[in-house]
């Protein structure tokens, strides 16, 4: 089969026999740095000043030429689809080749306009149409912006982004509801998901692992809603978290020892508190000679060990069949001879199976749970175990929890946008009907805030010596007891 480039060249030659193609000065040749990497978004060239200005204005030029540019944009978009047609969706089509041919055809169509466009308008129209065809329309620049951690689309006319923990409205807009729906369909179809009136909510992910949630009418009253939590191409390390102030070097060393000593750890916190980032960092402490099974709704964890098996849940198909839940994967993972089981998020009856795994020889397992504090974490685990439908007495569930979980790492997101670990808490034992907890490190709020509203506190030791040191010693992991001494 001929390539797309050959087919397009033959098509242009047939339309203009004998014509010598003019040199293209506005076609960007792909470089080796643009080569796609498997599983990651392809890097885009650094924007020029004109392109940066166009993107900052959301691709909506003002002034008297606005209507004309919109008309040109619609005409060029239609001609492009007419020329390329279904070739845009060929599964084996190379993205570099498509990008090159796309820019070539855009130059042809724009050059054929009766009224020539200025260089800035031509670049603006080219970038917008390219983002629509290859990327994700007006949100494409924000997905490529390393300072943006989340993109929130609240209907075609309202887009917000999160930069450094702060929400900011941006001037970018979708043309209409149909334009937004086409972008959502493009995202979810690439991972085998669907979204329509019969299934108006969907969780998906981009090729680079960024988490996507979409809700469409009739559930979304004011237009389709799209939320994308970006996934860092280069995951944060423990040194990064120390630099950000998420925890201290002393706390890092203690958590490192706990993971190497095969303690069962639960990372808790609210939505957006940074649980997955912390889970990724804790997972990096696992020795490289162990078999690790990760279980997630959307594959986000990036582990660098050699022996990692990644599992991802699956929703039901259009007939309501074929769903594979986190609980199913946890059950199956027990038959895969894991040394460690890492669950991205426990939110339902899978909590029971996770406790069973922790209590049946799979020490060193790590998972995350949504909660407001260490004590709430235990209550939420109890509630999720009851969701399994097992008629278990509360005391039996609490005994299972106290026996299975060794450590709770609780994380919070403060008003200044920073994400900090606020509690490292030991789960001790049952005393009567209550599980006793002991805080080993807590966040010191006494220092307050600076003039810019930034948190000045940090994680400090409580002075209490954890009882789990004996368990670590049995695993030949030694921790200096002086790290738990209070300073001053």
Describe the structure in brief.
The chain has helices at residues 4-15, 49-56, 66-84, 95-111, 119-133, 140-143, 177-189, 238-244, 249-260, 275-283, 326-333, 350-359, 374-386, 394-404, 469-474; strands at 148-154, 159-163, 166-170, 201-205, 211-215, 225-229, 265-269, 292-296, 308-312, 340-343, 366-370, 407-413, 419-431, 434-443, 459-461. Helix 3 packs across helix 4.
What attributes characterize this protein structure?
single chain; 488 residues; alpha/beta; Beta-Lactamase; Rossmann fold; nine-stranded mixed β-sheet; six-stranded antiparallel β-sheet; 18% strand; elongated
Please write out the topology.
Layout: H1 4-15, H2 49-56, H3 66-84, H4 95-111, H5 119-133, H6 140-143, E1 148-154, E2 159-163, E3 166-170, H7 177-189, E4 201-205, E5 211-215, E6 225-229, H8 238-244, H9 249-260, E7 265-269, H10 275-283, E8 292-296, E9 308-312, H11 326-333, E10 340-343, H12 350-359, E11 366-370, H13 374-386, H14 394-404, E12 407-413, E13 419-431, E14 434-443, E15 459-461, H15 469-474
Parallel strand pairs: 7-11, 7-12, 8-9, 8-10, 10-11
Antiparallel strand pairs: 1-2, 1-6, 2-3, 4-5, 5-6, 12-13, 13-14, 14-15
Helix pairs in contact: 2-5, 3-4, 3-5, 11-12, 12-14, 13-14
Task: Tell me what you see in this structure.
This protein has 488 residues and is an alpha/beta fold. The chain has three domains: 23-30 and 38-134, no CATH class; 142-229, Beta-Lactamase (2-Layer Sandwich); 238-484, Rossmann fold (3-Layer(aba) Sandwich). The protein has 15 helices and 15 strands. A hairpin with a 4-residue loop joins strand 1 (148-154) and strand 2 (159-163). Helix 11 runs parallel beside helix 12 (350-359).
